[in-house]
Every structure is written in C-alpha cells, then in structure tokens.
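Researcher: Here's my situation. A collaborator sent me these components and asked whether they could plausibly form a single complex. I don't have experimental data yet, so a predicted model of the whole assembly would be a useful starting point for our discussion.
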Amino acid sequence: MSTYILKRFLQLIPVFLGATLLVYFLVFSLPGDPIVALFGDKPVNEAVAAKLRMQYHLDQPFWMQYLLYLKSIFTFDLGQDFSGRPIAAVLGEVFPVTARLAIMALIFEAFFGIVFGLIAGLRKGKLFDATVLVASLVVIGIPIFVLGFLLQFTIGVQLGWAKPTVSSAATIPDLILPAIVLGLGSFAYVLRLTRTSVIENMNADYVRTATAKGLSRFQVVRVHILRNSLIPVITFLGADLGALMGGAIVTEGIFNVPGVGNRLYRAVLSGEGPTVVSIVTVLVLIYCLSNLLVDLLYGWLDPRIRYDS
Amino acid sequence: MSASVDFQEAGYATERPLLEIKDLAIGFTTSNGEVNAVRNARLTVMPGETVAIVGESGSGKSTTALAAIGLLPGNGRVTTGQILFDGEDISNASEKRMIELRGNSIGMVPQDPMSNLNPVWKIGDQVRETLKANGLPSGPDDVAKVLSQAGLPDAGSRAKQYPHEFSGGMRQRALIAIGLACQPRLLIADEPTSALDVTVQRQILDHLDKMTTELGTAVLLITHDLGLAAERADQVVVMYRGQVVESGPSLELLQNPQHPYTQRLVASAPSLASRRIQAAKELGVETDDMLAPSETGVVEPAKSDDVLQIQNLRKVFKLRSGLGKSTDFTAVDDISFHVKRGTTTAIVGESGSGKSTVAQMVLNLLTPTSGKIIFDGVDTSTLNSKELFAFRRRVQPIFQDPYGSLDPMYNIFRTIEEPLRTHRIGDKASREKKVRELLDQVALPQSTMQRYPNELSGGQRQRVAIARALALDPEVIICDEAVSALDVLVQAQVLNLLAELQSRLGLTYLFITHDLAVVRQIADRVCVMEKGKLVETGSTDDVFESPQQDYTRALLNAIPGAGLMLPPEMDVA
C-alpha cells in the first residue's frame, strides 16, 4: 500500500510541472500589456513601467519567466500581486473560504443525493422515484447562474431565510445558501447515480442470498445494498471535490463570496500571471490529491481492488 | 407445532410432510400481461428426505423452489394453490413471518458461487450475520465451527478472507455453511454444483449429503441433471414447461419412465447414456451404433493420416505481479498428441487445465511459446499471412456460448454468408444457395435466414454456429465446449448432428470439454489434461474402461449417476 501511495505522489511531479507550464503559457499569451493596463487612463510613465516589468520579470523571454517562477515556488516566495501584497498571503486568505464552501456543498450533495437516491432506487417506479427523477432532470437542465439568482432572490431577498450575500468573514451560516446552489447540480448526479446503482444491486444474487439467510429488509439494505452501491458514488464525489473548488467562480460571483473564484477571475482580467498560476496550481494539486483519496477509499470499499502485489 | 418436533423424534410412521406443495400456480406480471411460469405443481418432502426437481431451463423448477422460501422476483406471485411448511400455509405469508422462517427453518444454497457472496464483505462476516439474524451465538469460534463443518480447511483464518480469494469450490462450501448454519429443517439447494468442475462437484455433494444426514435436514434439490438427481435423491419430480409431469422414487422413475418427456430425458441424459454404453459393452453389445449414427459412407475419408500433429507444445503466460515484475505461468506444459483425419479427439480437463489454451493455439489465435503444431504436414507457425488465410478456411471453430458468438446485428443469412464473402467464394446467387444447403444440413428451416439471433433458442443458435463453421467446407472443426451451455435434450440433438455431419463429410473434430459424459458419446480418442500437462491419452474405450491415472479415475467416478445401474443392463454389475 505504501509503495502505491509513494508512486502516486511521484506521479504528481509531472502533473504539477505540466499544469504550471500550460497555465503560465496561456497567461503569457493573453493579448494586451498588463503593465500598460495598470496605468489606466493616465499616460504611461516609461521609467516606472520598465521598473515594474523588471520586478515581475516581464522583460524576460517566456522560458526565463517560467523558470524564475519555478524557482520562486521552491524557495517558498511566490512574489507579490499587482497591489503589492504577497501572493502567499492572498492564497491563505481565499482558499479557506472556498474550501469551506466546497466542503459544505459536498456534504449537502452527498447526504441528500445518497438518501434520496437510495429511497428512489428501493421504490423504483413509484411516485417518489418519478418525482425525484423529474426534479433532478430540471436541476441538471437549468444553468447554475439561473438557479443561483433564483434562490438568492426568493430565499434570500423575498423570504429572508438566509442572507442574500456573504460578509467578508464568510462564516458558515453565510455560506449555506451558496453551498446549496454550488452543490445542486452534483446533487442531481449523485442522486441518479445512487439510484441506478441501488437498482442494479437489488437484483444481485448475493442480495437474494442475504434475504434467504433470514436477514431483515433493513439489514439487507444497509449491509448488502448500500455499501456496494456507494462505490461508484464515492468515485464521483471525490472527483467532484476538486471540481467544486475550481468551479465556484460563478457561485462566488453571484453571492459575492471572497474566495478563490472571485480572486482568480480578477487576476485573469488584470493579467497577473504569477497570481493566476499560483491559484491554478494549488487547484490542480487539490484535484490530484482528492483523486488519490478516492482511489484509496475505493480500495477500502471494494476489497477486490488492491494496489500492491 | 410442538407436536411435530415430537414426531421427528418418534420416527416416520405418524409424520406429516415437512413441505407440501399443492396445486401451486405462479404468475409473472410482464409487459405482455400475466405469464404463468408454474401450473399445478405438486410435491411432498418428508422430514429428512431428499427430493429432487429435475427439468430443463425455463421448466419452472427454480421458481417453484424460490416460492417455498418466499423469494420470488418482484413481479412474480403465487396465484393459486398452497405451500404447506410443517402444516402452515406460507404461500402468501407476511414478510415478517418469512423472515422468521428463513435461515433457521428453511435454508438455501444458491446456484452460482461466484455471484452469491457479497464481494465486499469477508466470508466470516457473511456467516456471522446469518447466525446473528437467527439469534444464535456468533463469535469468531462459532463462525469457524460452521465453516469447518462445511469442509473448509483452516476455517479460522479463511473466515478473514474475501470471496475473491476463494476458489469456486471453496465459495460453494462457504455458501453451504451459510445455508446450514442455523440447522434448518429444510434446505433448498438450487443447482448447488452446476457451476463447478465435476470432481469438485462430487466432493461438495458428498459433503452436503453427509451434513444433511447428520442434521436430519430435508433437502429440496433443484437440478437439470437427471443422473445427479437419481443418485442423490430419494424422490424425483420431473417438471416440464411449468408443470410436474411425473414424480416418484428415483430409481423406479429412471427405470420405468411413464411420461414421454421423462423418457426422452432418461434417454439423452449424457451421464446415464455413457453408463449405458459402458454396460452394453460389457454385455458384448455392439456399441458403435450408439456412439454415432451408422456409417452412410457418402464420403469415405480419402487419407487416414494424421491431419494434426501437436509436438511438445508449451505456452507460458507472464503474469503481472506489480511494479514491472512478472511471474511465469505455464498454462500448457510440453504436450504432444495427434489427431487422425475423420475422427474425433477430445481434450478433457477441469477449468484451468489449459485445454482451451491448446484450442486457441491450434486455431492460431495464440502463439505457442515453444513446440510445433503441424497441420497436414505444414508447421502452422511458418505460415505467411496469405497461407494463414487459407489455413483459416480449413480449420474452423465452434465456441461455447451460442449467445455471445453470433453478432446480434446480423441476420442469420448474413452470419452464415460472412465467411463465404470474406473468402470471396462464389457470387451472390451461389452463396445464397450454399446458405440454404447449410441450413438444411443443420436441420434448420430455410426461413431462419431472415431472423436474428435473439429470436432463436440456444440450440438453434448453436446450429447456426455449426452452419457458419461448415460454410467453408473445413477439414477440421475445433469445438470449444460447444455443447456445455445447452440443455441435455438439445445437447443430445447437437451431438447427434455433429456425429452425422462427421460421417457424411469426413470432418475431423477436436473437442474441448470438461464433461466426460459428453466425451463418451462422441470421441474416438481422449486426451486428459491436468494443470497444463497431458496425463493420459488413449482410445475412449480404453480410457473409460481401464484408466491408468488416478486423476482420470477421479474424473470418471465424478460423473453423476456413474454408480447407477440402468436398463437394459440392470443385471450387469
């Protein structure tokens, strides 16, 4: 097992290098000069511009810039953003907020998705099943920004059950509504996946054998149907954690959450290469790690999968 | 209720049946309305008695048994009739009552050991929950005891393993342990060994017999094998198309079958047929005509030389064992034999013996690690692509699964015509004529041409596969378990067809099978394989009458019904 984990960590190295290089190249090729843009409407002071270019290595060729950036990462000095704040501090500020949001969304989609999916699967073809299926289709069909604004307006503004926007502290109660919006799409997928998986497992021979042992319906469902059905669902949830972290841009925009998505969006607009690359790199690492976690969980849930020997 | 326990102690005389099924009808709700799977089923199981239900697939035998433990699939239900368990009608009992009965009063051993254990739980856990659900002590020692009683060696540590770490036979023992864990009074065994090799099958059934005798458990045994039923059961119930057509004491029913279906079943059960051939031989009766239809002599084999010579054939597979390392696994180990033109050679062995690997190498689908396959004087490994194409025309396969080996999107005409088209033989009209002839040869109506595989039965599909193999007028046909997936009656028909085609067309067969009973009916020579090695080879008669190796003897003894004596040779030992 430990060799497997070591191997997976070694695989992170090329992924990390590839991702940073690609993102760096994309930011480098963005049209427009970010330094000129900094001056806004004012005339460009060439001396200041040259000094800024040197500070951010923008006068160097692409390869040099990239290597300098790598060097800064390994010396744990990520440099500064255009407003002069250390990028490390910016990351430390925005990632906890988004992590809180993403984990709340994950808990929401996992809990309700699995519970509703299980009930729908066990009552296949009944009213509950049909209702939930149609509702999940509607949720999948409507774009997230429409759902976001809709819930913000009805629940936040009209009913006043939750705050329509998030304070700068981004506390857990603040984030409930955004987390629901963020998790809604995946909730529908988890529900459908659980339902299909449960239906498949209900007809498995070992479920019939379990019933023949004299187990109660509840025991059969809990021990023999639920665990087996969760294997594909866990895979989806793990991969989804990474997607939720990076995919929160729209939701964070709607609810004005001071998180990764918001900051990344601003950095892209102003062409702050190092900030963009730093944020994206952390996202890539989170994505890889959550996938590793899924694979380990998978081996634990399904003993047929063993990673060494 | 309590009285019945006393009766059990007292003995047979005043007993009432443990299980009595009266005029049972079971219906399934389908999109085409209500379908009756079982009608007027009737059977009685006395305490401690073994009763077998025999029938082909779809005869309703499993459905009847499942109804007795309340495990009909969701869309099935008992429409009329009664299922009396110890005097209590349980045909429409509440789920609560059934949960009380399952496990400790009625146990079940299911058919397929591969799919009936939950892959994500340890064997011990799956035994423990059985004990626990029925209120019995369920500590590790209790679990180990139950498993070791079912004949699982080293049960304590085995209990900590997962199903995928068990062989098929061990899994079936675990399932038997589960079925008998709570010492039920009735055990429903649904084809408990049909997925296992014949020698393992015998061990498992012997052990099951021993355990149920010791515990005094009555057994309702479901099987498609009449020989097995007759050997193991006191009473046999024959089901056909949802109805009980005949029932009675096993030997009586076997020796004097009344219903036409039972007569056909007795006549074609391979295990019984081979026994009969053997007995006839001892009487001095000419057996040739029982082995194959009489020689019509239409095509006399031109040359009687060896069409296939296998010399020192070896196949080594590299098994990955993590991190770029690999271990060698010798699937076929230095085997040599030859196949005479116009004869049938059978390769027999249990699963994992390497027999299918040999077939694939002969078909040139796998490259041997070393050794030679000489077809008609030419080493097949030296063939270039053009010669290989010609070789393929002369050597054709028929595979086991008639469901998987036909393309569901091709109609039958296209399926049979395809090899002709691939080898650019004839024009459209002549190819159609050829397909019609082929369908005649395999006794399928010509109207079959327009149909698709899903509209045909298993036996019909295997006929189509045979017609396709014959399309190119091959000299050698490799049958890889070609009849194993078929019901006995259909199996007999297909074997007859193959024998008839052989005598008419002078075909050579290489027959790969695990079923010795089938070998007895069709083969001239037998090669017995064990763990990649050829342990014995000889003419079928020699091998069956005086097997030289222990392994061959074990295989022969394991044929169900081998110990039975049947008419007309009843008086011959």
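Model: Some features of this prediction you could bring to your collaborator: Chain A touches chain B at residues 3, 204-206, 208-217, 219, 223-224, 227-228, 231, 301-304, 308-309 (CB under 8 Å). The mean pLDDT of chain A is 84.
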